[in-house]
Amino acid sequence: MRDLLMIPGPVEFEPEVLQALGAPTLSHTDPAFIALFGRALKRLREVCLAPSAQPFVVSGSGTLAMELAVANLVEPGDAALVVNTGYFSDRMAKILERHGAKVTHVRAPPGDVPSLDEVETHLSQGGFKLLSITHVDTSTGVLAPAEPLVRAARKHGVLSVVDGVCATAAETFRQDAWEADVYLTASQKAVGVPPGLALLTVGPRAMEAWRKRRAPVASVYADFAEWLPIMEAYEAGKPAYFATPPVNLVAALDVSLGQILAEGMEARFARHQRMARAFRAGWKALGLRLLPTSEAVAANTLSAVYYPEGVDAALVGGVKGQGVVVAGGLHPDLKTRYFRVGHMNRVGPADVLSTVGALERALAAAGHRAEPGAGVAAAQASLLAG
Ligand code: PMP
């Protein structure tokens, strides 16, 4: 029997999305492909609540989406402020530095987010071109308060770049209303498509900053100058070629974004919150502790949970033996001390109960004492409470 995939990406996908991947590949100039690519771009704008943004869909993973944002906005010597909540904030800093930025980190201990005051203090010193925020850091399961952070950047005339790889289409994000400049993501998590697409919605201030660059972008594949005419052409119903689009992935993206919009963004954000609450109730009833230091900073897209006393990373294999795939830790300082469970995209009550149940059985086999069924009962009570 197939295991249930509950890692923080890739995740379980809808059959209609997978069918689009398995369909005969169209020419990238076929009218049917032009229509679906154009529609997918429009849908991406809607999912990010970003009517004024320019969407980009490029073959690559989330790291390419990060690099596209940085390569186009940063020039050597620019100063960038990184709100650092873990491994993926460090990755953003590495990319920024590689492109010549001077990076300042605002850090918090693992499991927490830096205070808004501290971020504001740095911003008010002036000189920053860009503020980077990891909406959900997948290494720690920490949710950053994106709205006040991007608003602070805007107040100080700094471009905000938000990494939504583990958040987009699950965590509440309103790009235009909050005046966020760049939202970047990838296909394989809450966007609901197997790995392979880098996705960005780039707001007007960021496009303007790119247009005003002094020097050309130092990479051809990453240059908006190559991609913008392609995105504009497909949205206008015309074919264009720069680099061969991943035809089947784009078709799958169109299907998934259509499903996401049919559910509705508010309903989708609320469902992810409900499922995350039920998971947290389950962990608590099993006597487990979250890595995020409070519920307020705990992501709705994954749980990062410490192993209890006497249990180690072998638990992940034990859970797989129970039919559910979860992930080990990723934060460099703590990675042997916790595990991660992804809960995004098509996650529903059945997945919550299956996963908490598998954890209970694996924990019992590892010698952790808990009332049999306590985790499942608490998760169920949370689901029933709505
Ligand atoms: N940012 C975050 C928050 C992520 O979770 C990930 C991947 N887990 C990435 C960036 C990088 O994405 P990818 O692995 O698709 O390159």
From TrEMBL:
TM helices/strands, residue ranges = none
Instruction: Give the protein's cofactors.
Output: pyridoxal 5'-phosphate
Give one Pfam family. Answer: Aminotran_5
Q: Which InterPro entries match?
A: Aminotrans_V_dom, PyrdxlP-dep_Trfase, PyrdxlP-dep_Trfase_major, PyrdxlP-dep_Trfase_small, SP_NH2Trfase/AEP_transaminase
GO terms for MF: alanine-glyoxylate transaminase activity; L-serine-pyruvate transaminase activity
Summarize where substrate binds, as residue positions: 340
UniProt record, GO biological process:
glycine biosynthetic process, by transamination of glyoxylate
Q: Which residues are recorded with the post-translational modification N6-(pyridoxal phosphate)lysine? A: 189
Q: Which residues form the Aminotransferase class V domain?
A: 31-331
Which keywords label this protein?
A: Aminotransferase, Pyridoxal phosphate, Transferase
- Could you name the domain of life of the organism this protein comes from? Bacteria
Q: Coiled coil where? A: none
Q: Which family does it belong to?
A: Belongs to the class-V pyridoxal-phosphate-dependent aminotransferase family.
Q: What is this protein called?
A: Serine--glyoxylate aminotransferase
